[in-house]
Design a protein that fits this description.
about 230 residues, alpha/beta, six-stranded mixed beta sheet, about 30% helix
């Protein structure tokens, strides 16, 4: 797949070849859905709380006697049936209750498959260089207009590209992300994505490209080098 490479004025100055098979060959909606739901669930703060009848302030005294009043039977004032009482099914789950897990190979395949989906829809704008001499929001706005970006946009930048980050951070519907940590959550949550050619090549050749046995994290590599068990 040939992807056009644009300059800062939106003019095509070259092309970059991307292997579709390395990105999954075809879009896998089921995999993308599973990964998207996982990222969404793991971002939940999980701090919503409501009080049950045991945590609600108020006396435990029975309001009036059980029989002889002609009224319906009633218990304490903290019952869920009364205004100001506790909740029958209170929210008590924490952040960990919503967390989902996914094998690292599946996560990486989902990230690369999300990039494939964006490339097929021509929603990735590859720029030959995203270097700015000084931080200028107007210069980045002009870049978006030159690339026909009129919807939400994800700008993937290298951590060292500080001027470009400062130029894009104040624009509406623009999210700045680390190009080394691109995920399907970020890509699918925006219509367009802008990334420098060198950053895209580094991401494709980096850890995200390892979906075989070499992707396994060696947790005890430091101990092995010291002769440990």
């Amino acid at each position: 797949m040939e992807i056009p490479v644009l300059d800062m004025t939106g003019k095509q100055v070259g092309a970059i070849s991307v292997d579709e098979h390395a990105l999954g060959g075809e879009v896998n909606p089921a995999l993308l859905k599973q990964a998207f739901v996982r990222y969404h669930a793991n971002r939940r703060q999980g701090s919503a709380r409501t009080r049950n009848r045991g945590r609600t302030a108020g006396s435990t005294r029975k309001l009036y006697r059980q029989k002889g009043t002609g009224r319906a039977r009633s218990g304490p004032i903290r019952t869920p049936l009364r205004k100001g009482g506790g909740h029958a099914f209170a929210k008590t789950r924490g952040r960990e209750a919503f967390r989902k897990d996914m094998p690292i190979k599946m996560r990486r395949k989902a990230n690369r498959n999300a990039l494939l989906a964006k490339l097929i829809d021509n929603e990735v704008k590859v720029i030959d260089s995203l270097e700015f001499g000084t931080p200028k929001t107007k210069a980045f706005r002009d870049l978006l207009a030159a690339c026909n970006v009129n919807r939400s946009c994800l700008v993937a930048l290298a951590p060292t590209n500080e001027n470009a980050r400062l130029s894009a951070r104040n624009l509406d519907d623009v999210t700045v992300s680390n190009s080394e940590q691109l995920t399907c959550w970020d890509m699918l949550n925006h219509r367009y994505m802008i990334i420098a050619k060198a950053d895209l090549e580094a991401w494709l050749a980096g850890a995200s490209s390892k979906t075989d046995k070499s992707a396994k994290v060696k947790r005890f590599a430091a101990d092995d080098s010291k002769g440990g068990a």
